[in-house]
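Side project, low priority. Logging it here so it doesn't get lost.
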Amino acid sequence: MKTEKYRGVFPAFYACYDREGRVSPQAVRGLTRYLIEKGVHGLYVGGSSGECIYQSVEERKLTLEHVMAEAAGRVTVIAHVACNNTKDSQELAAHAQSLGVDAIAAIPPIYFHLPERAIAAYWNDISAAAPDTDFILYNIPQLAGVALTLPLLREMKKNPRVIGVKNSSLLVQDIQMFRGEGVFVFNGPDEQFVSGLAAGAVGGIGGTYAVMPELFVRVRELVLAGEWEAAMGLQDRICGVIYRMSSAKGNLYAVTKEILRRQGGPDVGSVRAPLPELSGEDGALVEECVAMIDDALKASGTGER
């Protein structure tokens, strides 16, 4: 299996809004350009960080169209296309293929607890709408309410377009188990990037990568060089930032978007209700996180922003 284009650091792309809360093509292009210039290897568009469950099909299409136009083949693009019904998911899958994405991805259906045969049918129906495009299964049981099992993975492997798993379960062992089934695996939880790479992940997809992409790129470089102690030390710094961000009253993505803005990155707006926006008390926390990231950049040898 050729996995080279799927190796590396893939920021999970943020939802980009204007002041009225509408998807902003200008902000989408700005964020795409910013991340590519930071040296990331790919982008994961339309997932949790993209607030996909709070966006319409047309909004998700608009975002992907402007990511693809700005990226212009410079990085690998994976489009998450799952909706909570098959028809809309197929529409997004076909649209993604028409734009030339490298792969599509999908979580299982949420809310109703479906048997595995129904989940397999849902995924295969989505894949059939983009028959020339690689397909990546998204395992995030803590939010989807259903976990990817080995029997389900083996069933999905009958589909030749299924080549990988985005694994956001908290069990690093899952990466080893899925990899043993002959598919490649992305590490999902940002806090265990080093552990995921050690377990055989080809790279990572994460929601905090965009505010510290250089740190995740550096961690991977250290791992590839066999400098495990330095990689773990930098992972500890990354985790410290994530833990601090997660203590805010506002939603994590509201925090990351504000950090990005204060770092001099693109202004991509806030988050969409019912996700909570930043509170007045979160301002000092955001500044603290910016300083922690800057300190980590200096300590890692990647320099200042």
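Brief comment: The mean pLDDT is 96.
Revisit when time allows.
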